[in-house]
Amino acid sequence: LNETATTEIYTRARDDARRVAAGNGIDPLDMLEQFGADAVRYSLVLLTKEGQDVRLSPDRFEQGSRFCNKVWNAARFVMMNLEGERRAEPVELEDRWILSRLKSVSEEVGQALESYRFNDAATLLYRFVWNDFCDWYLELVKGRLGESQVTAESSAAARGVLTRVLTDILGLLHPFTPFLTEELWTGLHETLGQTPESDLIRAAFPDGADLEADETSLAEMAVLQGVVGAVRRVRTLTTVGERKPLVALISAPRAEERAVIERHASTIRTLAHLGERSEERRVGKERRSRWSPYH
What is the pLDDT of residue 3? Predict the structure, then answer.
């Protein structure tokens, strides 16, 4: 090959060998054996911010370990639910939202890597994968996978969007967790009945250039997340169980917010574990919607 494999090398090192010898330091080989190479690498990148020294202890690597497990479990869930037709066109609000978020994160991660802000890139991916993809999108899309009451178009779109987002997540994470993502890359293509054109390490890095920024979906999801998040906070602050049906009185003064709540009332009830809506009423200048377990 006539191509240059490496043009720039980034290094940041400090000689603490004496601490290891004295028994009050960390042997990286022990951490690799305990947590795995990808978990150790990702933890170090998350912890290492430019201009700061980090005091390491074994428990600091648990964050990377939990994240790698999260990625593995999410990917396996996706692969278990890809049987059937797949369409790339988004149909539901959550499809447009996650693709818009993927575009934004892909661009921001690329910029961070180009400017050697590895901590920023790793943090962006951590929040996107854990919060947006796992905590929100997977929960929203579960009901569209293989259930008879869902249209074939909606199910096909869910599988298509899941495939696209997971594929790009693996590419974005590959510089940080190469072993995990290469294994899942192979497994994903086997699930799809495809032969990858190359190993993931040689695949094009995702940049989100072909995706659209959908500001409307971002705004609507913010309303939905705000309502569900408020109910969850109430449950946390009280003795109410996580899944016990509640009566929720939701204040939405602005017409656009009320419209979003009305359109996605079923989704809100499912995620927040609320009963069926029993009534609507206007209180003062505010319009409020009420959900009750009794109907």
Answer: 58
Q: Say if residues 252 and 258 touch (Cβ distance below 8 Å).
A: yes
- Identify whether the C-beta of residue 288 lies closer than 8 Å to the C-beta of residue 282: yes
On the CB side of 245, CA atoms within 13 Å amount to 10
pLDDT tens by residue, 74-89: 999 999 999 988 988 8
SS (H, E, C) 106-134: HHHHHHHHHCCCHHHHHHHHHHHHHHHHH
> Rounded to 5 degrees, what angle do the CA atoms 130, 76, 191 make?
135
Look at the alpha carbons of 30, 33, 37, 40 in this order and tell me if their dihedral is positive or negative: negative
CA distance 196 to 29: 33
Which H or E element spans position 282?
A: strand 277-283
Measured CA to CA in angstroms, residue 273 lies from 29, 95, 289 at distances of: 46, 22, 15
Q: What is the dihedral of CA 134, 98, 183, 79, to 10 degrees?
A: 80
Instruction: Give pLDDT tens digits for 127-180.
Output: 999 999 999 999 999 988 876 667 889 999 999 999 999 999 999 999 999 999
- Residue with token string 């920023």: 120
